[in-house]
């Protein structure tokens, strides 16, 4: 009689189609309690993610800088904010952090410094900030074109060269700062002199190479399917490079501008 029962017949057919015995009630209950679907994997990063995070990070820095300009923040407070910003930047860099609060915190504190410093330069050299902004925009466009056209390819050797140049430059600036306590102008790399001009040009070029490495890093991350949150680190790198270029262009232009 059991063979004629349609329910038992279906169970046997199901067991045969699954390639195993008919599930027990406990197994059926476990299947019922299991999630209906596996949670989707983390969405990979896209260029749009980088653009949005980049606008958020750089926009925060610009807005904070504009507020510092309007409020005429004293340079003493601005330098303190710069130190906090540098600490946050070092943490974000060494930890490869994708924490939005950390990265936007850097943008806020360093934005105060950039805004106050820009205001000071503008007081002495009318129109210099606009020139520096245009120069930075030109550098960004030029490096983007170089990267897109593959005129300069990023290789491990180039990365090592840029890293070594950055360490050497920071070392020279530190020596210049220390010597400056005992000798006016330090070793001369930050003075209005041929040596100062050459050093500023070298620093602008170094910033452009940083930007080139940033573009290549973003391209590689997208190709490898890096998670969406990595866009914050990419935006942070772009902001660092652009601020570096802007400050160096600001200093370089000041050498050839007449004070008011």
Offer a few descriptive terms.
globular, mainly alpha, single chain, 260 residues, 74% helix
Q: What is the gyration radius calculated from CA atoms?
A: 28 Å
Structural class: mainly alpha
- H/E series, N to C? HHHHHHHHH
The span between the termini is 108 Å
- Outline type: globular
Brief rundown of the structure:
The protein is built from nine helices and no strands.
Write the layout of secondary structure elements.
Blueprint: H1 6-18, H2 25-33, H3 47-71, H4 75-94, H5 100-124, H6 128-148, H7 156-180, H8 194-223, H9 230-254
Q: What features would you describe in this structure?
A:
This protein has 260 residues and is mainly alpha-helical. It is built from nine helices and no strands. It has helices at residues 6-18, 25-33, 47-71, 75-94, 100-124, 128-148, 156-180, 194-223, 230-254. The relative contact order is 0.14. Mean pLDDT is 86; it is low at 1-20.
């Amino acid at each position: 009689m059991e063979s004629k029962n349609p329910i038992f017949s279906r169970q046997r057919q199901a067991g045969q189609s699954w390639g195993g015995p008919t599930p027990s009630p406990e197994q059926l209950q476990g299947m019922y309690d299991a999630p209906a679907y596996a949670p989707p994997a983390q969405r990979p990063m896209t260029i749009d993610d980088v653009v949005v995070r980049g606008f958020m990070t750089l926009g925060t820095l610009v807005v904070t800088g504009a507020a510092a300009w309007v409020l005429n923040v004293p340079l003493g407070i601005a330098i303190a904010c710069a130190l906090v910003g540098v600490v946050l930047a070092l943490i974000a860099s060494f930890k490869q952090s994708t924490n939005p609060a950390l990265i936007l915190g850097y943008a806020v504190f360093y934005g105060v410094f950039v805004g106050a410093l820009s205001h000071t330069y503008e007081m002495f050299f009318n129109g210099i900030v606009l020139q520096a902004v245009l120069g930075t925009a030109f550098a960004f466009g030029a490096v983007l074109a170089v990267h897109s056209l593959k005129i300069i390819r990023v290789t491990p050797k180039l990365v090592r060269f840029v890293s070594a140049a950055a360490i050497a430059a920071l070392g020279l600036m530190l020596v210049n700062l220390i010597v400056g306590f005992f000798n006016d102008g330090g070793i001369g790399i930050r003075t209005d002199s041929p040596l100062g001009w050459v050093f500023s040009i070298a620093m602008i070029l170094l910033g452009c190479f940083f930007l080139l490495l940033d573009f290549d890093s973003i391209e590689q991350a997208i190709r490898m399917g890096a998670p969406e949150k990595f866009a914050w680190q990419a935006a942070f790198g772009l902001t660092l490079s652009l601020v570096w270029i802007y400050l160096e262009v600001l200093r370089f232009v000041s050498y050839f501008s007449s004070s008011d």
